[in-house]
C-alpha cells in the first residue's frame, strides 16, 4: 500500500513537472484560456465591456498564415470573376432578369454543396478539401469563359457555387476552430479585412483584357490555382478538436444541427439569410445598375473597388468592437444605419452622392455576416463548429440564391434604382430580427 502511494505521488510529481514544461513551450495553458473564455461567456451577450483584457495569441495567427494567404489569392480571383460575369452577360444582350437568375445559380450550388462539404471536411480535413475545390474552381472559370449559351452558363455557375461552398466551409471552420472566444472577433476581422482587400483589388483587374474576352477569366483561373500553393506547402494544418474525435458527439443530420443552432441563438438563421440578400444583391446587380446608368468599364471597376475598399477599413475595428460589446446590439444598430443610407440612395443616386453613399453603405453593411457568425460561435459547443460553419453558409446561400432574383424584380419594376429599395427593406428586416433576438434574451 505504501509503495503504491509512493508510486502514485511520484507519478503526480512527474505529471506536474511535465505540465510546467509544456506550459513554458506552448505559452498560456489551455486551462487558463478556458477559464478566460468561461468568464467572458458568463457575462452574457448583452454585457458591457468584458472585465478581462482579450488574450493576445500571436500563435493563432501563425497557425492560420498559410490559410489566410491562400484565401487572399482565392478571393482576389473571385472578386474579378464575380464582376466579369454580369458584365459579360449584359454585353451579350441578356436582360436584368436573366442576369439575376444566372447569378442565383451560384448560391443554388452553394446550397447543394452544403450536403457534401461537411462530410468531406470530417473525412479528409479542411486542408485537402480546400485544395480539391480550388482546383475545381480553376477548371470551371476557364469553362465559363469558353461558352455563351445562358443555360450552360447557369449550370457552370451552379457548379462554381458548389466548389466555393466547400472552399468557404473549409476556411471558416478552420478559422473558427483555431480562434479562441476572446480573440474570435479580431481573427475573423483579420480574415474579412483580407477578404475585402482582395475583392477590392480584384475589381481593379477588370480592365485586363476587357470583360467581353477570355483574358479576365484566364487571370481569375490562375489566381484560383495560386491559392493552392500556400495551403499545400505551409505548416499549420488544422488539428481535430477533442470532441471531433468522437463521431457520436456530432449531430448526424442537418435537422439536428439546425435544432442545435436555433436552440443556441435565434439570430443566426434570419441573420445569415438576410446577409445573403445584402451581399449577393451588391455583387450580382450593382454592376448592372452601373452599366444601365452609363458607367464605362474603367469607372465601374473603380467604383466597385472603392466601395469594397471602404468595407476593408471597417472589418478589423468592428471585430475589436464586437469583442467588447454585444455583437447582436451592433447588428441591430448597423442594420438601421444601412437602411437609412439605402433610403438616401433611392432618392439621390447620381454623381458624388452615389459614390459617397455607396461607399458608406458597403463599409457598414458588409460587417454583418462576421458579426452574426461570431455571435453564433460564441454560443455553440466546439465539436459543432465544423457543422455549424457549413450550416451558416447554407443559410447565407439561401439568401444569396433568392436575393439576386428578388432584386432583379425590384429593378425591373422600379428601374435600376430599385436595388436601393431592395437593400433598404432587407436591412430593416435584419434590424427587426436582431431586436427580436435581444428581447428574447432579456425575457429569459
UniProtKB/TrEMBL annotation:
Coiled coil: none annotated. It comes from Paraburkholderia acidisoli. InterPro entries: MFS, MFS_dom, MFS_trans_sf, MFS_YcaD-like. Its main location: membrane. It comes from the Bacteria. The keyword Cell membrane applies. It is a multi-pass membrane protein. The chain crosses the membrane at residues 63-85, 97-117, 129-147, 153-175, 187-206, 218-237, 257-282, 294-313, 325-347, 353-372, 384-407, 419-435. This is MFS transporter. Residues 1-38 are annotated as: Disordered. It is found in: Cell membrane. One of its GO terms (molecular function) is transmembrane transporter activity. GO terms for cellular component: plasma membrane. Residues 63-441 form the Major facilitator superfamily (MFS) profile domain. The keyword Transmembrane applies. Keywords: Cell membrane, Membrane, Transmembrane, Transmembrane helix, Transport.
